[in-house]
Specification:
Distance between the termini of chain A: 30 Å
Radius of gyration of chain B: 27 Å
Oligomer: heterodimer
Distance between the termini of chain B: 87 Å
Shape of chain B: extended
Number of strands of chain A: 0
Number of helices of chain B: 9
Number of domains of chain B: 3
Largest interface: A-B, 81 and 93 residues
Number of strands of chain B: 0
Chain lengths: 154, 264
Amino acid sequence: MTNVPSSFPVPAKLLIWAVAPTSLLLGLAAWSVSPPFQDALVRFTNSMLTSFTLFSLMLLLTLLVYGDRRKRPVAPFFGMVLSVAAGSALTYFFLSQGDLLMEDNGSVRAQALSNIIRFATTLVAMLVSVMVVAGSLFSSLMSAPPAPVVFEEE
Amino acid sequence: MEEAMQALVFFWFAGLACMTGFMLGFFAKADNVRKVGAALMVLGFLSLLATPWTLTFSPSSAFGHLLGSILGPCVLMGVGFYQITFSGHVPVGRLSPGERKTGFAMVIVGFVWLEAMHWWILTPTYPNEVNRYWLIFWPTFLLFGVACSCTTYALVGHVGNQRNQEQRLMMLIAVFFGILLVLGILVDGPNVLRESFASALFLAGADLFGLLAGAALAIVLFTLVMALYESQQPSPLQLNSPSKGQLQQAAEMISANLTGGEEE
């Protein structure tokens, strides 16, 4: 990968490496059964709204740490509170539109809570994946002795 | 206690305690606050684990059941990787070769245990059917594992020098996870049929992309808010460049404090 000159910037290459095999496998899953496209679209939207709201909340909490170093600024804190409020309001609004984003839940509250638990499950799965990949990588890196530094005479 | 109140205390407050405890434990500066954060996280996690007993009436308790089901293999793999890594070529605190072998055994047993949850009778079942959150966890774990190892493969190739072994390992993991996914799509398991696995995989993909898109939006917004705030701050006081006298004084101070022998 490194030796081949390419016009792609590195982040784009990494994104392609992440998305291409994933899409291939999802395509295989779609080919093997009649895929629930409508359900997947609803799932994607619910997941995006929940993730946006909860990540905004987490970033809002990090501002408490940031505030220690910058005399507790109010403006960014207020900005992120607005962001969390906007995410929550959007979620509530879309969930209230009949069956638009509802899955197998009887009420808006049940659907919102179900979204949060699914978000947590997905996050746990991602963390375990990262643990396996990073654990394997560091195990391999540490198994070999450090390469000697060779000084070349000028 | 009323059922809704029980769910609020034992599940939602516990989840909030976990998240807040994690943030405090990792980011707070004061030691006391960090300890309180760690205690909050442990208490919240224990409360979540206990929900199959404390909240038997609530569907949310299936999440606590899932956490309890995967805790064993995850701890085995985590400790195993730690032992393998720190029994390698680390400069201080190296573990013994025996612990390295134990680490390998723990990782293998942990992974086989997880596999047995799909391909054998160990599938998390709650209360009388396959745990609905297992059908989210397992395909997401494999799918994100493929994405993560492929990205690491490319990243190691970009920043690493003579790291062919690591690249091969990453590709091996990606192929292995990919094969597990394809097998799940094509072959029925004892408790999870291939149709339900394929559907769950498709929905897991939607969940994963949705989560990443939402997170990216939140981070972009956070960056904009911070950039806007910082750009409105007055610029720091600029000092004048040093005068000749100050430079002369600095040179004298430096030469007075420099020691060095003559060349032999």
